[in-house]
Design a protein that fits this description.
- The chain contains twelve helices and 13 strands.
- Helix 8 links the parallel strand 9 and strand 10.
- Helix 6 crosses helix 7 and helix 7 packs parallel to helix 12.
- It is an alpha/beta fold.
- The strands form three sheets. It has a seven-stranded mixed β-sheet, with helices on both faces.
- The chain folds into two domains: about 180 residues, Rossmann fold; about 140 residues, Phosphofructokinase domain (Rossmann fold), CATH 3.40.50.
- Bound molecules: 6-O-phosphono-beta-D-fructofuranose.
Length: about 350
Amino acid sequence: MDEIKRIGILTSGGDCAGLNAAIRAVVHRAVNTYDWEVLGICQATHGLMMRPPQAINLTPDKVNTYLTAGGTFLGTTNKGDPFAFPMPDGSLRDRSQEIIEGYHSLGLDALIGIGGDGSLAILQRLAGQGGLKLVGIPKTIDNDVGVTEMSIGFDTAVGIATEALDRLHFTAASHSRVMILEVMGRDAGHIAITAGIAGGADVILIPEIPYSIEGICRTIKQHQEQGKNYCLVVVAEAVRTEAGATVSSSKGLEQCRLGGIGQYLAEQICGRIGAETRVTVLGHTQRGGTPSYLDRLLGSTFGVAAVDLIAEGKFDHVVTWQNRRVVSVPISEAIAGYAAVNPNGVLVKTARGLGIYLGD
Ligand code: F6P
């Protein structure tokens, strides 16, 4: 195996809490244990596309203060597939070779890419084409990377959604209202069901389980009959209308931007049973703020393990969390399919056991 002297690290895709903990761990392990140099690539693969490539030398003293900081101090992007990069004139251009040249011009011997399934797929394709030695770390608040029980960012996002529910309880009760909380999660309902159970929701709607407006209204009425004057509804952004339409605000945009299902539900509920209904859309607050202890822990664990994989010469793998252990898995497996909420799994069973309406 070629000797490793200098590695790169980049964050790609939407930001989330815990990314800086992972970068910090990579730097500590690489510099202190292996005596390697670490370059932080700015703005994901865009930094490698620029000339000169945008990268900063990272040392333990420079990264220490970032442990508790949200976001990613390296910057990131979830736009601009390098294989079909949108140019100012509206055309799409394959700019993958520029990234590969950028990697080699920095003298990198390996690269750690922190990303969700989309970013990991792009990085793997670049690695195959250009001989990049790649190791992946999974991050996404959506927690839909199937091979790992937990991705960096999920726990903090769930904590924020749970806290929002805690706050909504009191104002909902004070005004006898139905409160709808719309959360992120892309095509999966992990944030919604986890926060919904932890935050005491009465109704949890996730894309994996069909629902009916009639079923929601029946639940609200049952609560009223039992003396509970308010109701908390959590809905994942990808839940469709009863007729099966996606609710989004993506007209004219490059990517589908989900959002608006909460407002749709409010109108349906109010129209059907006259309940006073309000909507809270949590949006990007779920990605921001101080990382939870678990995201710092996961980021630190993954960072150290990713560097160790490079030292072992085990490339094209991603580190994952399975049964309280870090397990490395081929990237191809990690991107093969996304993990939806299991309709027969423990969380759905728990929610139903608590009398929460999840669908019919
Ligand atoms: O994938 C992470 C995520 O936060 C999704 O939950 C959400 O749908 C999307 O990114 C939002 O993306 P953007 O930051 O482009 O609005």
